[in-house]
Task: structure prediction
Amino acid sequence: MQLSLGPILYFWERDTIEQFYEQMIDSPVEVIYLGETVCHKRRSFKPAEWIELARQLGTRGKQIILSTLALIEAGSELGGVKRLCSNGELLVEANDIGAVQLLSERKLPFVGGATLNIYNAQALKHLLGMGLRRWVMPIELSRDALADILEDARKLAIDDELETEVFSFGHMPLAYSARCFTALHHNLPKDDCQLKCRDYPEGLAMHSQEDEEFFTLNGIQTQSGNIQHLLPHWRTLAELGVDFMRISPQPEHTLEVVQRYHQALTADAGTSISELLSSPPCDGYWLNKPGKDIIARA
Amino acid sequence: MELVCPAGNYPMLKAAVDSGADAVYIGFKDDTNARHFAGLNFNDGTAAKAVRYAHDRGRKVFVAINTYPQPAGWERWQRAVDAAADLGVDALIIADIGVLAYAAEHHPELPRHLSVQGSATNVEALRFYQQQFGIRRAVIPRVLSLAQVQQLAQQAPVELEVFGFGSLCVMVEGRCLLSSYATGESPNTSGACSPASAVRWEETPQGLESRLNGVLIDRYQEGDAVGYPVVCKGRFTVAGSTYHAIEEPTSLNTLELLPQLQQAGIVAIKIEGRQRSVAYVGKVAQVWRDAIDSCARNPAGFAPQSQWMEALASVSEGTQTTLGAYHRPWQ
Result:
């Protein structure tokens, strides 16, 4: 089992991003995903600059993968995705089928992100034929579903070539919209959003009227209010054949979270990280329950 | 333009056909389709009757098999595809790559439409589904602006169908897990959003409360318009203010855009609402039939008639309508 670092899902300043990766490049993650996956208007790094940053980091011993937008509508957005797909050397994580098309036309291998909606081995098999090398399980799937999919993959004799990754830590990306909920919160239209999400490096918490943390608004993306935390289940993931546990960057404590995950995986340290959590933990999806539920102790 | 109407049962299908639908889309009585609700949908017998009724009158039937099968249910989706083919339906509406591959391999002659749940919002995605599975048509998500729809239609390698009327999903269809986060069931996995089994209503001193698996979705005072607690359509608190933080309970109505959609080359208008009533589909189909015919005769002079808009408003969720994402400022 190895650790991967997902793309930064929030709008952080350029300096913050550079400092963040400077810290993470020496951390125990084996894989780093880089790129803007939520909103094309966030331009701390333009696509060409993400590629440049990825090349620089790529010389320092970790696998660097460029991650593409999950919702591609405008021509300019598609242009940015094309730029990443034709970078010429680095592996790309496709988060929309449009990116799969661009990569397979170029006969390039790719990682299939969670939003490709791979719910069964038949879909896996088809995408493997097009260049898929690693897939990220859809966020809402359970341990049981994953076991079944990997069992079917064995029956279809496609499991040898395949790596599996599971979103294991962080606010889970749950939905993508035409609307920007951060702009809406400020009564601004999306076309004139004034890049308000820059003010919310951990998103904007949305509570029920009873003050229950429910969702996190992050521009056009809606995330879980609770923080997915699958470390208590890491042995099950490993037994099923999961290759990578993905940690999603948060503004605080990401390095400590990575270290704690690493210690648990390699030195059998405890899996409780409650003092590092800014929101309640959850693991419901993994256990076939509502995603927000917490079953194991954090 | 073709008018594609919903039917959750045989009487609805008859009403849709009798009121002018060119095609009616239906689903089977299980989780293979995105309106898996108790008491809704067709078994083999009623589906055969439905196909006969529509075909006798020169109309088409499409079958939605548009959820995402997990291995434990895979055979059910295979059976659904085979059953639809045996019924002689006119097209399958599919989202999942595995199901598309199965249908293309086993029933190559049966037209395949990409479901809105397939989340194709750009030309490269359309090319993928066309080249890999030979789809004839794609239903595009309700997140694109009119300008984006027009641009996509210019480049699309397949026919495009757009939503004209009905409940509004504010999220990209097929990419929304809010319901399973709250309840364990989502459109992708169970064919249901915010399922009725998770809903609770309670009169309290603070007002009438609606809950979804325990989470307070909304609280109503005397005189408030009360709506079904869809996970995204409640009033929530963000940074101290309480409001519809994601979406208000409104319906989509794009009737006034018909000339532009026709001009763009959109081949079909889809009406949402298999879970609605016979009266709903009859009324909505009638209005859209008249509007599409009127627009075809004279696009330049087309104007939505007030009695059309009133009829549609009377069956709208929240009794308000919006152009949704087609109208840029809404975004």
Notes: Chain A touches chain B through 73 residues (CB under 8 Å). Residues 2-172+226-287 of chain A form a domain with the TIM Barrel fold (CATH 3.20.20.70). The radius of gyration of chain A is 18 Å. The mean pLDDT of chain A is 96.
